[in-house]
Amino acid sequence: MLPGVKKVNILGEQAERIYLSFSHDRLATLGLSPEAIFAALNSQNVLTAAGAIETRGGQIFIRLDGAFDRLQQIRDTPIIAGGRTLKLADVATVERGYEDPATFLIRHQGEPALLLGVVMREGWNGLALGKALDAETASINQNLPLGMSLTKVTDQSVNISAAVDEFMIKFFVALLVVMTVCFVSMGWRVGVVVAAAVPLTLAVVFVVMAATDKNFDRITLGSLILALGLLVDDAIIAIEMMVVKNGGGVRPPQSLGLCLEPYRRAHAGRYPGDGRGLYAQWICAVHRRGVRQQCVLDRRYRADCLLDCGGDFYPLAGGAPVAGQKARGGRPRRAV
């Protein structure tokens, strides 16, 4: 068996049958009837109870196995005809054959065929197994008799390769569109950051999958294709928020942390309860000088500010977070 093959299922195999054929004229000459032949076969092909053995754990029943397991046993079945004992082979023909008509039959290009289903082992490379099966198929076809051939009907490795190609095409198209939009609207520096965020995120995903012993299969690939839009969208939102904070006078170390503000404020959808993102935001927000100059409001005072002001907290660059109340025009009014 090839490496990577777990098992091989055979589909379309016809069931074997034992056929008994006889001549009614010959049976009439011997003074036999078909019922007598069937009765002789039934009397031999039985399980006979021979007693039981009493043990401490229960009874063990003993049975004499008289069931037929070879074709010659059927042929040697004794038949009594006219005071003589004959063998079944003397009055009938016993032969092995296949079920006719077949209850289940597979055809390939109009011809009867058997279907071999190769099951791959868990965690094996499907593309490598596909190449090994192609080489083994060519080797088997050289040794098959005339009129028989082994043909590949479906190949999962082709579907895997097509899925990988589809993902790569969508990946590069999405990356190109995002880079073009960022270059035109926000400059080349933003485009480089967005372009680097997507492959770096995918690289981290592959590292985590390898560390947790997760397989890279079609289901995982489909999930990455669905998540590709989220990766691009997240990169644009984060870098756009950072640019807005920089334009408002916030320094880069703090603006890097504040770029996660939309995710923290999301109440439903994709980012509920993401504590890791908030931790990353806090680390970036208090980077360098912010560690000494920023402080956290008391929980009770913070709740009172929210109730009185009806707004959110807006961390000031180089200062403590304070409660802000929205003024007219939609812009927050900061109170120190």
UniProtKB/TrEMBL annotation:
Record's keyword terms, sorted: Membrane, Transmembrane, Transmembrane helix
Name of the protein: RND transporter hydrophobe/amphiphile efflux-1 (HAE1) family
Q: Which organism is it from?
A: Klebsiella pneumoniae
| Keyword Transmembrane included in the entry's annotation | yes
Q: Which residues cross the membrane?
A: 167-186, 192-212, 224-244
The record's annotation in InterPro entries points to: AcrB_DN_DC_subdom, Acrflvin-R
Q: Which GO terms describe its molecular function?
A: xenobiotic transmembrane transporter activity
Query: What cellular-component terms does GO give this entry?
Result: plasma membrane
